[in-house]
Amino acid sequence: MPDVQKVSIALTGEQLACIRAAVDAGEYATTSEVVRDAIRDWQFKRELRQEDIKRLRQLWGEGKASGPAELLSFDALRLEAQRRLQEARKEPDVAG
């Protein structure tokens, strides 16, 4: 095991009871294992959040670089979508 250091943490009675129940049920060998597992999960989620933030910043930059927003006509968009749907229904099935 890598360099292990002891720390003291404060938990609510409910949290401690839940941890002890997991150990008593045989899900974990010790309460320390429960806490280490929870920290590993937190680290993984934290990394995912950081990746999400990085991707959102990239998309935000791309959006800003694409120029100013233009007004859209939802009626025109709906008509275009209906036209495309009709065209797609007319196309022959190439899989057959």
TrEMBL record:
It comes from the Bacteria. Gene3D superfamilies: Antitoxin ParD1-like. One of its GO terms (biological process) is regulation of DNA-templated transcription. This is Type II toxin-antitoxin system ParD family antitoxin. Belongs to the ParD antitoxin family. InterPro entries: ParD, ParD_sf, Ribbon_hlx_hlx. It comes from Telmatospirillum siberiense. Keywords: Toxin-antitoxin system.
